[in-house]
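Why do we care about 3D structure at all? Because function follows from shape, and shape follows, mostly, from sequence. That is the central idea of this module. The next example makes it concrete: a single protein chain, its amino acid sequence, and then its structure expressed as tokens.
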Amino acid sequence: MAKLSLETAKRLLAVAEQKSRQMGLASNIAIVDDGGNLIAFLRMDHARIAGIRISQDKAWTSVSMQMPTANLTQAAQPGGPSFGINTTNHGRIVILGGGIPLKKGDHIVGGIGVSGGTSVQDAEVANSAVQAFEAMHENPNPNINARIGNVRF
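And the structure:
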């Protein structure tokens, strides 16, 4: 199984940063591997310090739970089937939107976590990187350039 490379992680950070700027946000963006280990991180100017850990934990949660963090939001509410899940794993489980696994086929190869806006905004920024990741793997020919906004692959 192919691993998520640093070069790919840097490209995904660039896409997410561009989307965040377009939305007028200052985000923290984290990319982790299939074990939830940090590969690359970007803190935009004026991004909240608390968002550093939140973005990393969103990425980790998306890999460890094998789903977007937004999927946990409803289930983790009082009376929900997963109420209290965010208190497990030393508090690393994040139930806010903005963490999404990165997949090659059916295999999770990593995850992205974003913190800087609302949960919906963070998920939108993360999703821009997920779409770029999927586009890179739909067209793996290195001689063909794909362009997403101003970021060139």
